[in-house]
Amino acid sequence: MTDNTRKAARPAIPAAPAGPERAAPAPRRIRLSRGLTPWLFLVAPLALLLTFTYAPIANMAAYSFTDWDGVSPELNWTGTGNYTELLTRSELFEVFFVSGYYLAASAVQIVLALYFATALSFDVRFRNFFKGVLFFPYLINGVAIGFVFLYFFQDGGTLDSVLGLLGIRTDHAWLGTPFSANTSLAGVSVWRYLGLNFVLFLGAIQSVPGELYEAAEIDGASRWHQFRHIIVPGIRPVLSLSVILSVSGSLSVFEIPYIMTGGATGTETFVIQTVKLAFQFNKTGLASAAAVVLLLIVLAVTWVQRRIVPDEKVDLV
Amino acid sequence: MTRGTVARTLMYLSLILATLVVLLPLAVVLLTSLKSPKEMANGSGALALPDDPLNLDNYVTAFRDGQMLSAFGNTAVILVVAVGGTILIGSMTAYAIDRFHFRFRKLVVALFLLAALVPGVTTQVATFQIVNSFGMFDSLWAPIALYMGTDIVSIYIFLQFIRSIPVSLDEAARLDGAGAFTVYRKVIFPLLKPAIATVVIVKGINVYNDFYIPFLYMPSEDLGVISTSLFRFKGPFGAHWETISAGAVLVILPTLLVFLFLQRFIYNGFMRGATK
Question: What residues form the membrane-spanning segments (chain B) (predicted)?
Fold first, then answer.
């Protein structure tokens, strides 16, 4: 069809200009405008990209070597002072241990998501209902989730009442000690994000052709064998994506602990600390150094993951 | 046979348990939102049913004193402008990258690719200074610009989709005398509808739920969006869990309705958005 239109249109072009002298510059003009057109489309997107992603990174790297407070016109070059402060003042670095709770939680989360995705990939009654219920928390506003669970863990709140029904009386302050508070908050994070992993896994499992399962069943493969040899290889790309998302997610936790505890009782995360340094204590220089460290760690983790599991999906260029 | 039955029963039990774990905290908050302050005080427990299941007093309080109405208004403005802008920017970028061969094309693609790896939370320290220098701090423009300017996922979604549109359609239109812009507007853009629907859903839910950016950039009370207005309930309503619960339910309800009506699109949208 394309060829037809081309042939039909071509004879029309030489008919319009008067002679070969005028036809010569035309292709050149077309090529010129073609060279410019993509940039007309890219001007706005690139301007936004450079202004709000790359300029901040460059500025941040520059601030991190100064003692700037974010407001005053003067700032002093301090070399690597901020970085040494970060590494030597242990309380500034301790916040990384809090990420450990979330890292452990995301391992639990991935295993649970994998289990539920496998379970619901088989023929199950009320499948859509269960799928919807498991996914819905992911869509809920983070502040609302924070309040729902503040009430959940409150003294005499949801959790205590449910435990009371089961005959367990406790006056344990769930958010009272660092260990208990961080475990509880990490639990909330599993509640919130499980749905996304679950739906991604389920989608990947369902994209495995059904004949594979049928063939396996005829060969007498058990459910475990089907899981081990059909499902796991089928979802490997999504699995590795989930792992990388949880690692960088665990390092940059902010919303849940900030909304629920404000970072009290040892629940302060790296991002909460950075936000406090920058916007409450006006230590823009130190906060920038902290942000640079976090950025480098996240990029390193991504790079390692890309090396281990070459991503067949990145075919943009 | 019996082993299979036991396994099936256990699986259903696990699903029912998961359903309880997800729904119970939400259900209790719904119950609490219908209780009067007096009921809350007499200590009948979190699981007790409200005396009057149609008691909407707390919702009135949340709406009136919690400024939820202006919060929904601000969120709607940001949502419409930011999502509209994202669609334009994303589709234009994808069109330019996929349909043209130009110098530095690989560099441009690499810039967008690399930006997707930078988590937004890490750079806010410096982004703040830039937003501030444009005079956008404490105005609706700050979140709008940031949502529009830092969304790489939508570009991926558009790029993926634009590739599936045959180039012969562009060529046919060009031979009819259409310029690059007309091709984009009349041929490509209308065919992008499914991708636009995906971006509207994914981006819309993200903007509706975002807390970090409005919290950092719009401290004024009258610029509250639903996240920040709800967050401010913590102060004045401190111990009034019935009002806080009503606020939380008000925020969750629109999400639930959208989810119930657009389920299919939502699953597909998030799957495409995350695996790009």
Answer: 12-34, 71-95, 107-128, 140-159, 195-218, 238-262
